[in-house]
Amino acid sequence: MSNAFDFDGLFAKDLPLPAAPWNGFPKYNFTGGHSDPDGIPVEKLIESATRVLRRRGKTLATYNIDSGPLGDAELRGYLADKLDRYRGFTPPIDNILITSGSHQALLLLFQTLINPGDTVICEALSYGAAIGALRGCGANLVPVRLDENALCTDHLSEILMNLRQKEIAPKFIYCMPTVQNPTSTVMPLDRRRVLLDISRDFGVPIIEDECYADLLWDAKWPLSLRGMTGSDHVIHVGSVSKYLSPALRLGYAAAPWPVLSRMLALKADGGTSALAQMVAAEFLRDHYDDHVAALNIRLKRKRDVLIRALEEQFGATAEFDVPPGGIYLWVKLPNGVATTKLAALALEEGVAFNPGPQWSVDPDAATHYLRLCFAYPSEEAIREGITKLAEVCHREFDVPARGANVSR
Ligand SMILES: Cc1ncc(COP(=O)(O)O)c(C=O)c1O
């Protein structure tokens, strides 16, 4: 009999379910938003860390180094300059809050803006953790359809009109116009204009999440929503995770001071890691362009390896649009293939992926979809993992048919 102290009776009410113990990564890991291990610029990070520690190391003696609670002034300065160069707007550095990942920026925004029972509009398929966090704040989510050009503005108009008739004023629209998660779609400029105009006419602000915007390979970057005229109702969120490292835990929000000051008051964590901020600022200032260009070549090649593997193993059974950037492929399997069940069975064979219902406001609408992240596994692991996945899928659901490797 164990005589360990029993904490169970002490827990607060309404806690989420306990986390499962971590058992290491599966051999073929297509889950989450991990980056490419061979895309991490280790040597250059060592040089940047050494240089910045020599130059600024003593500031680590204080909370928030010498920059105050908004975050390292050098990193905020770098980000303001990058947003100016690539995203079409130049926030004053005091309108940028550095957070521990952009997930924290989203949480702080949601806590700042949502009362239980409020209505929030988001894309029908969206970042799973944001769906969970919005619901955790008590929001009623109203999903907007997506097509190959991202959020459908006609549907948004219809929704806003219906809500107005019911005298419901939505708190905000949460969306990812530039490389959407999970569909990887990019909203063209003319649709961005319509989205801005509609949201402004209805008086509904937008939270624009540009977590993946740096990973656009072929197309030219469209302006961010916040970079377009008439966009001061847009709050812009970005991350260092996807183009440098998720483990650094660095993200940011660019917002007007009345919003930022409320977020800052909620961010009671003593500051985001100053060492991570210093090193990132030093590295990005010198190497951002070269690093991202090289990373994007790697990611595009992995996308192609994944597509080839799916075509060979699943044939026409797996349907998808070819992503122009990012790290995800959103795949549709035949109706009867329950991807939540498939995920559990595939995991027993060492293959992990995210089943569609995790990324859908209405889980029943995505039972036969799955999301594959192609950044983390090696090209060899992608090929082997998809072969195994097809075997499990065939065994359990009788698709793909054997010899399905017809070209799409
Ligand atoms: C759309 C989107 N936003 C935000 C995040 C949070 O990322 P991080 O906290 O690492 O910046 C993610 C992570 O996958 C994401 O997919």
Q: Any idea what the radius of gyration is?
A: 22 Å
Helicity, as a percent range = 25-40%
Q: What's the mean pLDDT score? A: 96
The CATH class designation of the largest domain is Alpha Beta
CATH superfamily of the largest domain: Type I PLP-dependent aspartate aminotransferase-like (Major domain)
Strand content: 5-15%
Distance between the termini: 60 Å
Instruction: Give the topology string: H per helix, E per strand.
Output: EHHEHEHEEEHEHEEEHHEHEEEH
Low-confidence stretches: none
Number of domains in the coordinates? 2
Largest sheet: 7 strands, mixed
In spatial order, strands of the major sheet run 2-10-9-8-7-3-4
Observed structural traits:
408 residues; alpha/beta; Aspartate Aminotransferase, domain 1; seven-stranded mixed sheet; three-stranded antiparallel sheet; 10 helices; 14 strands; binds pyridoxal-5'-phosphate
